[in-house]
Amino acid sequence: MKNKNTKPFYNTKIPSDWKVKRLKDACSHFKSGVGITSKHIFDSGVYPVYGGNGLRGFADTLDTKPFYNSSIPDDWKISKFGHEFDFIKSFSFSRAQLRESITADEIQNIHYGDIHSTFENEILDFEYEKPIPYITDGLIDKNAFEEEDFPALKEGDLIIADASEDYEGICDCVELKNINGRKIVAGLHTFAARTNEETISLGFRTYVLNHQQVIRELRRIATGISVYGVSKTNLSKVNIALPPLPEQKAIAKALSLMDIAINKNNQLIAQKELSKKWLMQNLLTGKKRLKGFSEEWKKVRIDDVTT
What integer pLDDT is reported at residue 133 of this predicted model? Predict the structure, then answer.
């Protein structure tokens, strides 16, 4: 007698309460390696990659997804710059209206030229970066900074140069750090942009425009002949890559430590250069003599020793 509690399964039978599914549907949650191509596979890495006749190599991520002409980890978010940042008013003060020394009003200004050529790092740290120009007294009412809607810059704000004489400087930017009550505004040929810590971590914001693929896109959409720029409208449409917030913080910390190391090396180089100048001034004048040398120096004419 036939068992009424079974159902056909290929050339046999299975219990009727068993489900029949396609393998791809049953194992879909095991899917990985999406978007990983040969350029993501190395001789060593975190995850083994199998394909073809066996082990092909190793990858550093399980899944990736397209980002411009490259790829990013699958758990990173792709968003428009304008969805994540709001623009803040900038002021168009010329160099002639700025002062290097502190003024009575103590209002500082981020000029696009300083972003291009003065500030050394992507993070503009007010505790270390000097000098940052001051606005001539009277051009802005210092009491305006007490108003809620005044565009005073805050910790983590992004200041972007909207004009550049070359492609390399298009949308150069700095993120503000250690403002600590200072009165600061964005200056000539700059965009000021603000977001929040729930979306983009402090210390990471400056790097959303420093991704190599984003840089290429900014250069592609830039307009101009002798001076290049990107409008707020076009900048707002640019895709940016955002890792999960904890990873943003970890990346920002790692890059910050590298900046500290670079700054220390630069200070050491500066000290060595000063030491060399001191040596030159003393050794080349005979004020200091190296050990083992005591003969009198001779004075000769240049044409006597040259041909």
Answer: 96
